[in-house]
């Protein structure tokens, strides 16, 4: 009998779509989404988060602090990660996220969010997935980190156990 360490092998999970052709998530799979954040996005996020830092609303304050212009909230940019995961796996449960803010994001810039599955482990008819997360502008990393999510209703391909 072949025993495998599920932390170091590809354990595919069925994506949360109903489809005749099953798509599986494997270690190394990357999902992306691009977005341009607007002044309205920043205002709406500020209302919900109660973060009214002038760096987000006043160009002069932002320039006085050493930035080119008004900033998009870092946490708003980082919200791309759960959006990417939940849009591919409806019902996913976001477990954790670490973040490193590398560069500022300005209103009107196109940001590409990316999540890459780095570890997949089956657990009680679900998959616990570790993702490398990163956001880019013009190819430069603005935010990176790691996320963990529980993906619902996995389908696991049976490993070939014959010798």
From TrEMBL:
Pfam families: MaoC_dehydratas. It comes from the Eukaryota. One of its GO terms (biological process) is fatty acid biosynthetic process. Coiled coil: none annotated. GO terms for molecular function: (3R)-hydroxyacyl-[acyl-carrier-protein] dehydratase activity. Residues 34-126 form the MaoC-like domain. InterPro entries: HotDog_dom_sf (IPR029069), MaoC-like_dom (IPR002539), UPF0336/Enoyl-CoA_hydratase (IPR050965). GO terms for cellular component: mitochondrion. This is MaoC-like domain-containing protein.
């Amino acid at each position: 009998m072949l025993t495998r360490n599920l932390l170091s092998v590809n354990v595919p999970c069925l994506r949360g779509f109903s489809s005749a052709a099953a798509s599986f998530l494997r270690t190394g799979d990357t999902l992306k989404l691009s977005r341009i954040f607007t002044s309205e996005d920043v205002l709406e996020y500020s209302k919900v988060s109660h973060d009214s830092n002038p760096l987000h609303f006043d160009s002069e304050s932002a320039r006085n602090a050493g930035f080119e212009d008004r900033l998009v909230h870092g946490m708003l940019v980082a919200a791309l990660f759960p959006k990417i995961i939940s849009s591919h796996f409806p019902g996913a449960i976001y477990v954790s996220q670490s973040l490193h803010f590398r560069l500022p994001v300005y209103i009107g810039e196109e940001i590409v969010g990316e999540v890459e599955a780095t570890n997949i482990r089956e657990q009680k008819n679900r998959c616990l997935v570790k993702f490398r997360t990163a956001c880019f502008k013009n190819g430069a990393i603005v935010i990176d980190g790691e996320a963990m999510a529980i993906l619902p209703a996995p389908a696991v391909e049976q490993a070939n156990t014959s010798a």
